[in-house]
Structure prediction request, 208 residues.
Amino acid sequence: MRKIVVQMSLSLDGFFEGPGGDIGWHQVDEELHQHFNDVIAPMGGFLSGRVSHQLMAAYWPTADQDPSASGPEREFARIWRDMPKIVYSRTLDHADWNATVVREVDVEQVRKLKAEPGGDLALGGADLAATFARHNLIDEYRIYVNPVLLLAGAVDLAAPPGLVARFAELIPRATLVVQPDAGHYPWLEDAEAFTSTVAAVLAGSDGA
Prediction:
C-alpha cells in the first residue's frame, strides 16, 4: 500500500507562512535540497492543488537551464518534470507537465490510488492537505523545523493536532544550530537565550 506523505517546513511556533504569505524565512541549503531530492525521487507522484502546481510549473520545468542553479536544483527540475502529477482544481481544464486534473477529492478514488503499485505520493498545498487530513488520508508527516519565530502567519491546517505543543516539549532538550545568515533575528545570537525564549512562547501557544 502506498503512503500519502506531507512534507512541511514550519517555524518554531508552528507557522508555515508568515504574514502576507512570506516564506522567505525557509532555510534550504544544498544539503537539505539534496535530501529532498533523495526522498522525492523514488516517489510515484505529486498530488497538488491548483495554486501549488502553477507556482511549481512557473519555475521548475526550465530551472536546470539556469546557469546559476545549484546541482540539487538542476536535479530536482528533472525529477519534477518527469513525475506524474494529479492537480485538484475546479477551474483548470488542463495542466501541463505530465499532470491530470481532478475536480474533487474523492475518498474512495484516493484509496484506490494508494492501493496501486508504485512509490509513495507527495501531497502539496495547505488547503488540499487540510482536506486530505479531514478525511484521514495522510499517512506520514515529514516536518522540517526552521529556527525562526514568526509570532504571526498561517497555520497549516493539515498539521497533526498538538504539533506545536510537542515542539514545546522537545525544544528544551534540543541542540539548536544557528545559521550564520540569521542575523536579522537578534535573539539567535545567543542560543541559550533563544531556547528559553522559544520555550516560553510555545508554552503559551496552541498554534492557532
Q: What stands out?
A: The helical segments are 30-40, 50-57, 71-82, 107-115, 126-134, 163-170, 191-203. Residues 176 and 191 are 7 Å apart (CA to CA). The first helix runs from residue 30 to 40. The beta strands are 4-11, 15-17, 45-49, 85-88, 99-102, 121-124, 140-146, 154-155.
